[in-house]
Design a protein that fits this description.
Blueprint lengths: L3 E5 L2 E5 L4 H14 L2 E4 L10 H14 L7 E7 L6 H9 L5 E4 L19 H10 L3 E3 L13 H16 L5 E3 L5 H8 L5 E5 L1 H5 L23 H12 L5 E3 L8 H4 L14 H11 L6 H13 L7 E10 L19 E6 L1
Helix pairs in contact: 3-4, 6-8
The structure holds N-carbamoyl-L-aspartate (NCD) and zinc ion (ZN).
């Protein structure tokens, strides 16, 4: 039984760093573990222009702890009014690594999301031509669709049509939660990939209701049945290059979670890599951990792999029970619990 795992430094291909004081509190967690991260643009207001992405990146860099080795990769929030030329220019100049598509009203701060795919078709065509990745929050927003079916319905009604219309468009289906999504992505060819969160590998929907309602386990897409969690574990640990690490760490202050209408989002950054390591160990797949955490993502994004290494040691690591104070305090996933691996 190996007591250390050494791998190329991993990247987080989907994270919410927020802004201001919240960013200052959460950024060190991500920067300590990951060399790069795809930073979600769902600020208020959202990041929709090159100028906004540059300014946000500068704020992230300014908030990094001294000595941190971390590169934020910025994304453009897609709206109905998006300009194909601005997006293409942002990609060419390295200001946007990808475009993020939130169906309007699908999740936190998605009110400005896309309402009509036909309107943004010129953006998709331009992105396909230059190979720029489109990152999709894949949930149907039809209020008649059951919340647990929204991902599968989105694939069937929306994603598959889009891919048939523009097969060259390079798509990451973000934070997949179902067997349907895992199967669809695995058979989707070279222009399709998916990120998988640590929490969706660890909890099923029962956890949200265990002994009472657990607001800190509520996120979107919501955790599904056990059979889906098991399918995600198989996909993540398979070594299949379609799947890579994306935490979707989504911090919300405790008062906005523990309330009558709590925000969606699970804050995993305080133990993210360690959580994934537990899953890979439980699945007997530590030899495939590096592929998922450090190789498959750069390959899809056509970026070099990281040269630096990180070592995880088999040693107790207690996830902080709380990060921050007062109105901004956060409750990390597995907070106060002991994990079996510690990142050095
Ligand atoms: C995210 C957030 O809080 O920004 N919430 C979540 O439940 N995952 C938004 C998102 O990625 O859907
Ligand atoms: Zn997210």
């Amino acid at each position: 039984m190996a007591d250390t795992i050494t791998l190329r430094r991993p990247d987080d291909w989907h994270v919410h760093l927020r802004d201001g004081a919240m960013m200052a509190a959460v950024l060190p967690c991500t920067a300590a573990r990951f060399a790069r991260a795809i930073v979600m643009p769902n600020l208020v207001p959202p990041v929709t222009t090159i100028a906004a992405a540059r300014a946000y990146r500068a704020r992230i860099l300014a908030a990094l702890p001294a000595g941190a080795d971390f590169t934020p990769l910025m994304t453009c929030y897609l709206t109905d009014e998006a300009e194909p030329a601005e997006i293409a220019r942002g990609y060419a100049e390295g200001d946007f690594a990808a475009v993020k598509l939130y169906p309007a009203h699908a999740t936190t701060n998605s009110a400005h999301g896309v309402t009509d795919f036909d309107r943004v078709m010129p953006v998709f065509e331009s992105m396909a031509a230059i190979g720029m990745p489109l990152l999709i929050h894949g949930e149907s927003t039809d209020p008649d669709v059951d919340v647990f079916d929204r991902e599968a319905v989105f694939i069937e009604r929306t994603l598959d049509r889009l891919r048939r219309r523009i097969p060259e468009l390079r798509i990451v289906l973000e934070h997949i939660t179902t067997a349907e999504a895992a199967d669809y992505v695995a058979s989707g060819g070279a222009n399709l990939a998916a990120t998988i969160t640590a929490h969706h590998l660890m909890i099923n929907r029962n956890a949200i209701f265990q002994g009472g309602i657990r607001p800190h386990l509520y996120c979107l897409p919501i955790a599904k049945r056990e059979k889906h969690r098991l399918a995600l574990r198989r996909a993540a640990t398979s070594g299949d290059a379609h799947f890579f690490l994306g935490t979707d760490s989504a911090p919300h202050a405790i008062p906005t979670k523990e309330t009558s209408c709590g925000c969606a989002g699970i804050f995993t950054a305080a133990g993210a890599l360690e959580l994934y390591a537990e899953v890979f160990e439980e699945e007997g797949a530590l030899d495939r951990f590096e592929a998922f955490a450090s190789l498959n993502g750069p390959a899809f994004y056509r970026l070099p792999v990281n040269e630096a290494r990180i070592t995880l040691r088999r040693a107790a690591y207690t996830v902080p029970a709380q990060i921050g104070e007062g109105a901004l305090a956060l409750a990390p996933f597995r907070g106060g619990e002991m994990l079996r691996w510690r990142a050095e």
